[in-house]
Amino acid sequence: MFKTQVSTYEGGWLNDQQHGEGTEIIGETSKYTGDYMFGKKEGNGRYEWEDGSWYEGQFVESKFHGEGKYYFAESERMYEGDFVNGVFEGQGNLKYKDGREYNGAFKNGQKHGNGSMKFPNGNHYSGNWRDDMQHGMGVLINAKEGNKRQGEWKNGKRVTWLGQPTKVIVQK
To answer: Which residues of 94-116 are buried (b: 16+ CB within 10 A; e: fewer)?
Structure first.
């Protein structure tokens, strides 16, 4: 059985295409409000989904592209930063429901490059990431012990410490 999704649009038109500011209701529950250019989402806008998730920011060729914010209702995560062709790409900040917060580089929707993660227990990792995991050289601040150590991580697991821990003052 073939089922089509009905959408309605109210806003500007040019040459029988959406153009200018407008609002589109997609199906019964998704909604886009923002700029259009020759039938495509182009410029600034806000897209809302049935589950409460939303994206607000720049669009190019109907994709998230440029600076924006994306709220994931199911996991209660919030990403704010750069998008390329609909995915996290470049610099951004990702906050998690449990209190974790990552600030740094993203590639193809994953933590990748230099970045730092704050953990709910006060610990802090700063260093290299690959495919959403700590990978390469990094520094871990242990809030409970009040020290920091440099180490090497592979695929999210620390493989070795380098040097001795040094004392730090951990702010809460």
So the answer is: bbbeeeeebbbbbbeebbbeebb
Q: Is 81 exposed, middle or buried (0-12, 13-18, 19+ CB in 10 A)?
A: buried
Could you tell me the two tokens for 8? 């309605």
Residue 132 has pLDDT above 70, yes or no: yes
- Could you tell me the residue range of the domain that residue 92 belongs to? 75-165
Confidence band, pLDDT 50/70/90 cuts, at residue 1: low
CA 34 to CA 57: how far, in whole Å?
9
What is the signed CA dihedral for 142, 148, 149, 152, rounded to 10 degrees?
Answer: 60
Q: Is residue 140 part of a domain?
A: yes
Radius of gyration of the chain (CA): 21
Choose the final residue of a domain: 45, 66, 87. 66
For 50-61, what is each residue's pLDDT tens digit? 999 999 999 999
- pLDDT at position 3 is 58
pLDDT digits (tens, 9 = 90+) for 13-49: 999 999 999 999 998 889 999 999 999 999 999 999 9
Has residue 170 been placed in a domain? no
Q: What is the DSSP code (8-state) at residue 99?
A: S
Domain total for the chain?
Answer: 2
User: Residue 117: inside a domain, yes or no?
Assistant: yes
Q: Which one of 40, 66, 92 terminates a domain?
A: 66
